[in-house]
Queue: 3 jobs
Job 1
Amino acid sequence: MNTRNSVLASSVPSGGESIKVTIGQFSRRPEAGSLLGLIAVFVFFALVGGKVFLSPAGYASWLNVAAEIGIVALPVGLLMIAGDMDLSIGAVIPAASLTVAIISGHYGLPEIVGISAGLGIGLLVGFFNGYLVNRTGVPSLIVTIGSMFGVMGLTLGLTVLIAGSTGVSLVPGPTIKAILGDFVGGMFQVTIFWWLLFVAAFFQLLHVSPVGNWIFALGGDKVSARNAGIPTERLTVALYMLSGFCAAFVGVSQVLVYQSAQVLAGQSFIFNSIMCVVIGGVLLTGGAGSVVGIVLGTLTFAIVNQGIYFTGIDPNLGSVIIGALLLVAVMMNDKFRLMAMSYATKKKK
Amino acid sequence: MSDNTPILELKNVDKSFGPIDVLHDISLKVRAGEVLCLLGDNGAGKSTLIKTLAGVHKPTRGTILMDGEPVEFSGPRDAQEKGISTVHQFGGTFPLMSIGRSFFVGVEPTRGWGPFKVYDRKTANEIAVKAVQDFGITRIDDGDRLVGGLSGGERQSLAIARAVHFGARVLILDEPTAALGVKQAAHVLRIVNEAKRRGLAVIFITHQVMHAMAVGDHFAVLIRGAIAADFRRGEKTREEITDLMAGGETMADLEAQIETYMQSHEGQPPPPAQ
C-alpha cells in the first residue's frame, strides 16, 4: 500500500524468483503507473525541449508551478482517497490572498495578522464544507461547488467594497518575504521547500500514522469504517479543514511572491489539482492512492504544463497532451490495480 | 453464568419507523456454542432485526438481555464492545486495503508515542495472518495481500476471524453464503462450525435452507416482521421450512390450483405465464 511497506515487504522471503517478486511488488504500488508516466514525459521534453529544459531555469519553471499545485493537490488527494472532493480550493486561494493584501496592504496592519486571518479563512471554509457534507449528505462535489461560488462572490464583493478594485497590492517586509515569498538562487520559489515539508507531513499522516488507515477505510467503505469505530464525521471535517488550510497557504504565499492579489487567481487550481491527483494513481471513487503517487502526478502535470514552452509546439496543444495523459493515466492505473489484486491470488494457487 | 442463560436474548421486541411497524413481538435467544438460524424471505425484516441486535436501531418496545441482564446499546460501537459482532454479506471489508490493515481498521496497533505514533505493519500482519490460519484458512499467509485478491469465502473467513479476535461472543452473520459458490459456501459453513466449537453464540441469517440445516441448532422463521415458527434441529424437514418461508399456505394454495387445472385439462399442466 505504500513505499515504506513495499520496501520492507521485499525483504520478506515470499518464494519464487526475486525479480518476479520485485515486479509484482512494484505493480502493487498505486504510484507504479504514475512513475512510468513521469519518466515518459520527462524524457520526451528533455529530447524535444533540449538544453534549456534541462538548465536550472528550466527546472525552476516547472518546479515553481509544481510546488503551488502540489501543496493543494496533497489534501485534495487525501480527500479523494477518503471518497470526497473539494472544488472550493479554487475560491479559497484568492480569498486568502486578498485577506492578507487587504489587512496588511490596504489597512497596513502587521503581516502576521493578515497571514493568520488568511489561513483562518481557509480553515473556516474547510470546516463549513465538512460540516455540510456530514449534515446534509449531499455529494461533496455539489457542496463544494456551492461553497466555491459563495466564497468567490463574497471575496469579489468585499474586495470591491473595501479596496475599490478587484486587485490589491502588498509590499511584504523582508523577513516574511524571505520565509514565504522569496526566490532561492533568483529563480526557485521558496514555496518548493514548503512543498517538500508538506509532502513529508502528508506522508507521515497517510502512510505512517494510524490515521492514514482510517482515511483509506473511510474511502473504501464508509459504513464499515463507521461500524469499526472510526470517527468518520470528525475525520471528514478535519480533512476539509486541512484542504482549506493548504489552499489558504498557497494563497498567502502567492500574495507574498507576486506582491499583489487578484480575485480570479485560483480558478485553474480546481481542475489542475484534481488532474495531478488522478494522474498520481488515486482512485476517483476513493479507497486507494498514495502521497508518492500524488507527488509524481504533480510533477508530471507541471512538466507538461511548462515544458511545452521549451518546444516548438503550439502551447495550446499542451492542454491536449494533458487531457490525453489523464485518460492514459487512469486506464493504466486501473490496469495496475487489477494486476495488484490478481497477482496476489495467483501466487498461492 | 449457567449453561442455560442465553448470551443474547430478545424479549417481545417491536420496532417501528414512524407509523410503519417492521418487527412485531420478536422473542429470540441464543446460547454459547449454539447456532441460531434466522430464515426469512426478502423483506421479512431480517435486516432490521440484525440492526437492532447490532445496536444500530433501538427497539421501540421490548428488551434486549445479555447474560440475563437487560442492556441498551448506544450505538454499533457499544454493541461491539459488549461482544456483539456483525459480519455482512461481502465481509464488510475494504477491497483495496491489505489484509493486515483491514483487519485492524479502527484499532491499529502502533509503536512510538504521541504525534509520532507509527502504524505497526509487522505486528498487524502477523496477528491477522495467524488469526485467519487458526480458522483453517492456510492459503492466507501474506498480510500485505490486498483483500480484493481473496475469494468471497476467504473474505468472509477473514471477517469472522477478525470478529473473534476482537473478543466477539455473539457473531451475527448476515447472509454470509448468499453470494458464494457451492465450494466457497461450504468453506464458510466450516468456519461457522469452528466458531461454534469455540463457544461463540452464532446468529446465522440466510434464506438458503440447505445452508441453515447444515449448521443450525435452532431455527426461527421470520415472516412480515414476526416469528412464524421456532423449532430445534430435526423437528422439521427441508420442504416444511421452505414452505414456511414462502408463506406456507400460499404454496399450498398454488399447488391446489395447479392440481385443479390439471384435472380439468386432461392432465395437462397450466401453460407458463406470459
Job 2
Amino acid sequence: MKTQEDMAGLIHPLAAKYLRTERLPHKACPGCGIGQVVHCTLNVCEDLNLNADNTVWVQGVGCSSRISYTLWKGDNIDAHHGRILTVATGMKMSRPDLNFICFTGDGDCCSIGGNHFLHACRRNLDVTTLMFNNSIYGMTGGQVAPTSPVGAKTPTTPYGNMEDPMDTVNVAIAAGAAYVARWRSTDFKQLTNSIKKGIQTKGFSFIEILVPCPTQYGRYVLGTSNPIEVVQWYKDHTVTLKKSEKMSPEELKGKFLLGEFAHNEDRTGIVERYWDAVKKIQDGRK
Amino acid sequence: MSKAIKRKDFVQGDEAIAEGAIAAGCRYFAGYPITPASEIAECLSKRMPEVGGVAMQMEDELASIHSIGGASVAGMKAMTVSSGPGISLKLEGLGWGIKNELPYVVVDVQRAGPSNGVATRVAQGDLYTVKYGSAGGNNSIIAVSPMSVQEAFNLTIECFNLAEIFRTPVFLLADETVGHTRELLEIPEDSEIELVERKKPTVPPEEFLMYPMETPEVINYPYPNIGEGYGICVSPYTHTSRGYATEAEKDHDKMAQRFVKKLTENLDLLTRCEEEMMEDAEYAVIAYGCEARPALEAVKQARQAGIKAGFMRPIIVWPFPDEPVYKVASKVKKILVPELNRDGQLSREVARAAKGQAEVYHLGSGGVETHQPSQILEEFKRIIK
C-alpha cells in the first residue's frame, strides 16, 4: 500500500495546497462529476486566495456533501439534511467577514431544504451555493428527486415519475437570488468563472451544476451506467442560453439551459442591512 | 455576597428570560413566532441591536434552531425559544447540537398539548420531550426549570453557563404561567453576575482534538470556532476525535459514552433542588416549575393543619435528581407529585428514583390552569389517611 509520501507526487498541487490529502481519495463513484466541481473550486481558491483563514466550507447531506465534507483544509461544517442554508445564516450573520461556500444537492436544497432555499434567496444572504444536480437521490439508492424528469423509473417510481421537475433556476430568480447560473460539471471554464463570480457577488449566489451520476441516474433513468454515455446524454440535453434564443419551444423541450440567468447587485442583502442598522441604533443611543 | 441592583422592574417571565439572555452574553437569537413564547422574541428583537447582537425571525422552527447552531459554531452565545408544536420541530435540530457538542440554549415555554392544544394556557407536558425527544438516544440534555420571574432571569444565565461548561444544548424548561406572570424583577449590576466564557485551545491546531473521545467525563473543554485557524469539523455523522466521519462500532460507542458521561460523571454541578420543612417531614410533596407554587402553599397549609409535611422542588430537572429524591423517599412514608399532565411524567421519575422507599402518588391535570393549593391539600390529606 502506498504511503502519504508516496502519494505526494501523484496529487495535484492545488489539491495538496487546499485539501486534506489524508482524506483522499474521495468517495465519489466512477464517472461522478463531483470531483470535476471540486477541481473548478480549487482553481477559484487559487485565483481568489481562499484559505483556511477567510473561507468556511459548508455541506448538507447527500453525495455532494458527503464527498466534500472534511475534504478542505480549514473549517468544514456539515449540516442536517436540508438545513445547510440555515446553519450558514447563523454563521454568516455572526461572522460577516468570512466567505461561506455551501455544497448542497438537488434533494438537500430543493426538497427537504426547499423552504430554507427560498428564504436564503429572499434575504439575499451573502453566501455562495453550489447545487449539485444529479436529478436523483444518489446516496440512498437512486430514488426519484424533485428534479427527476417525468416518466423516470426509479425504485420509488416503478410506474414512472408522475411529477414535473422543479424549475430551479427560475425559483431562485423569483425568490430574489443575486446571482444565478447553471452549468454542467464538464463545463470547466464557464463553471470556474461562475463560482468565482458567485463568491465575488454580494448577496445570494446560486450555481446549479448538472452532475452526471452513472451509478444511479444512468442506471435507472438513462438505462446505462457507462460514464461516457451519461456525459453524452447531458451534452444532448443541454443548450446554452444564447443558442436557445434562436430555438423554438418544441426544440427546447426536455433541454436544460446553461448560462448566467441573473446577476443583480443593486439589492442589498440581510447581512449588510442588519449590521448597518445595528450601527445606526447604537450610534443613536450614544 | 453583595447584591448591587442595576434595575428593578415589574415584568413578565418572558421579558425576564430575554433580559437574562442579554445579561448572560447571548448575542445571537433566532426564533419563530409562537404563543406563549413570542414576547421573548419581541424583547430580543429590540434589545439585540442595542447590544451589538443579532436577532433573526427565521422562516420556521427548524431554521431557528439550526441557525443558532451555526451561530454557536461561529462563537456566539445563542438562543432560540418556542413552545408545544414548535418544540416538536426544534427537536430535529437538537440532535445536531448534541452531536457536535454545541453550547446553546433552547427555551420551552410549555403550553397545553398535544399538538396545538390550548395555545395560550399552561401545561407541563414536555418533561420527557426535552430529554428524550431527539431521535437516536445517547443524548446529553440539561434542563433547568424556573418557578418565578426572578428565577426566569437567574436561571437563563445559569443555562448559558452550563451550556459552555458542558458543551451541550441546555433547555430552560419554563411554562406559560411563569412566562406570563408579572412580578418584581431585580437585575443585578453586571459585576454581580458570574459568567462562563468559552475556553479556547492552548495547543496548536495540529495537536488539538475537537472532541475528547478518550476522556468522556472531561468538562470545560476548549471549543475553537470557525475562522480561528483550527479547521474545525462539525457534522451529523458519528465522528472521531478530529471530527472525521466513522462507522466503527468502537468509535460510535466512545461518542455515545462521551455524551452520557460528561453529565453523569459531573452530577455535583448538575444537582440543584430546593427543600422546605423536610427536617421532620413524614409526607412530602414534590413539584417543579409553576406547579411548585401552589404545592408549597399546600404544604404550608398542611403544616398548619398539624400534618408533618415537607416540600421538594427539582430546579435542574435533567439530569433528574435521583439521589436527593431517594433521600426524601427514605425519610417519608408517602410522596404526592402534582403536575400539569395526565401522563404522570414527574411522578414516574420520582417513583423510579424513590426505589420503593416511599409510596408515590400522581395528581395530574391536562393543564390550562395550575392546581389550586386547596386541590393539592385535599389530595394530600386523602393519600395520607
Job 3
Amino acid sequence: MKRPVQPKFFNYMSTILETVDLKMTYRVGKVDVHALRGVTLNVARGEYIAIMGPSGCGKSTLLHIAGGMLTPTSGRLIIDGEDVTAMSDAQRTELRRRKIGFVFQRFNLFPTLSAEGNLKLAERIYARAKNGGNPEGRRRILKLLKLEDKLHHKPLELSGGEQQRVAIARAVVNRPALVLADEPTGNLDSENSKVVLDMLRGLNNEFGQTIVMITHNPEAAARADRVVEMRDGLILSAGVPHTDS
Amino acid sequence: MDSLSVANLKQRPLRTAVSMAGVSLGVVLVVLMGGLTRGMTRDAAGRQSNVDAEIRFLPGGEISITTSNPLMLSARYAGAIVNGVKPAPENPGVEPKPPVAAVAAATPVGQYVQTGAGAIGFEMVDGIDYASFKDVTSIKIVQGRPLGSGGDEQTAHEAIVDRFYAEKNLGLDNKPIRIGSKIKVLDQPFTVAGVYEPPMLARVKIPLKTMQELFGGADNCSFVMVKLKDREPVDRVIETINDYYPGNNVIPTSEIPALYSQGLFAVDVLLDVVVGLSAVISGLVILLAMFTTITERTREIGILKSLGASKRLIVTIIEREAALISAMGVVLGFVLSAIGRYSIQSSTRLIVDLDIKWLLIGGLIGMAGGVIGAFYPAIRAANLDPVEALSYE
C-alpha cells in the first residue's frame, strides 16, 4: 500500500555538491574518450538524487570525480563549499575521509573482517585514533539497517542484501556530508533491492543524509527526490524535485 | 588497523607461515653462526688460558695459530729460562745467561690445528713433555696413566684426552673412547693412555717428541709456558725474559683469550657476510610476500582509499603486517636456533653459545629486513590509483 505523498523542500542555498562545466577526457591508446563533456549539477544538502543513463554515459566517472577519486580534465567541483578541483591528492583524500561515504555495487567489504570490524575500520580511518569510535552512533545505524544480530558475521556469511546493508552502514557511520552510491542494487535480487532502497530512503529521511545514487533501475530511481538523466557525457535532464515516495 | 593486519595474516596462513620461515632462516643463520663462533672461540680461548703458568713465551713476529710450521721456537728456551745458559764444549761461543730467578718451572708445548672429526670445524693437538708440563699446570690424570715421553716405540703413539673429548667422540672402532682405544691424530692412529682434567689447551695431547718427528725432527715447539714462584710480579719477569732473550713475544697468559679472539679476523668477516646475507634473505622474503599480498589485495587497497585512508596510513598498515610476520619469524628463529644448538651440540663437538648479543643482532636483522623489504610494496600500494584499484579483478 502506498504511503501518503508528503511534499519535501530543499534549501538550494545550501548546496552540498556543485559541478560547473565538468569535463573528463581519457586517453585510451591513441584515442581520446570524452567521458564528461561539460556537466553542471547542483545537489542540495539533504537531497536524495538518482543519476540514470545508459552504460558509458559518464555516470560512474561523475561519481568518481565527485568522490575525489578522479581529477577532471577541466571544470570545477565544489563539495560543501570546498573547491575540490584546486586540491592536491592528499587534500582530496582528506576531504573524502571527512565528508564522503561510498556504497558500491559489489559491496567492497573487507572479507577478513566482521561486519562490526568493517564499521570500526571506517571509524578508525575517520578518527585517526585508536579509540572505540562512536558506539552509540554505530548502534543507531545498525538498528536502522537491521544489522544488530549480524555484527560478528564476516561478509561471506551474509546474504548479498545484508552485505550491502553493512556497506551502507560503513558509508554513513561517520555521518558524511555526502553518500555516493554506485549501483547499490545492481547485484541484488528484487527483494533485497527493495530492502536496500528502503534503507537509503530511511537514512535520508531520518538523518537528512544527502545521497547521490547511480542506477539503471527506474524503480530505484523513482525512490529518489530527483532523477538526473545523462547521455554521452552530458546531463539531459537535471530533473525536478518531486515528492517523497 | 591492527585487526585488519592480523585478519589478513590469518586469512592466508600458508603464506604467513612461509614468510615467517623465510625470516626465521635469516635469524637462525645469524644466531647459530654467531653463537658457534663465540662458543668455539670462548671454549678454545678458555682452554688456552686455563693453565697455571702465568707467562707465555712465543716466537717473534705476529702471534698466530697456524697449520703450517707449527713448531717455530726452540724447545730449549724452556730449560734456558729455568736453568740459564752456560757455554758448552760443543758451542763455546754462546753467551751465558743466568736462570730467570722468579721462574719456578717452564715447559715447551707444540700445537697444531687439524680438521675436526667428521670434517666439521677444527681442533688443536698439543705436543707436550708431560714431565715438565705437570709442573706448570694443574693437570690430573683421572683415568689410565700419564703420557709417556714419546722417546720409545711404546709411548710414541700414545695420547691423553680430556673428559669432554672422551665423552663426545668415538674411537676408530666406532665405540665410545676408553683407555686403550685408538683415535686418529695428525692422520695417524694413537692409543688413548689416559684421560685428564681440567680441560686446558688442546683436548688431545701427544708427546712433543712425536710431534717434532712428524714435523721434521727439529727440537722445536710452538711456545713455552712459564710458571712463576709465588707472588712474583708478572711484568717484571716478562721484562727480564725479554732482556735475556730478545726478539720473541713474551706475554701474560691472561692476555691469551683476547689475542685469540683478535686472531680470528677471517671469522669476523665471515660473520659480517652471514649477517648481511641474512638481512637480504629476510628482506627479499618479505618483499615477495608483501608484493604478492598487495597484488592480491589491490581491490582492498582501493576500498581503503575510498574510505579516505591516506598514503601514510596505507604504508603503515602494510608495514605493520610485515612487522607482525617478521616478529613471529624472529620468535620462530629463536626457537629453531635453540633446537639447532641442541642438535649441533649433541651430535658434534662444536659448542654454540646462544648469547644475548647474537640474539639481538638476529632479531634486529629479521625485523629490519622485513620492514625494509615491505617498504617498496607498501609505497606501491599507497600510490595505486583508487579507481583502478577498485575495478581490479
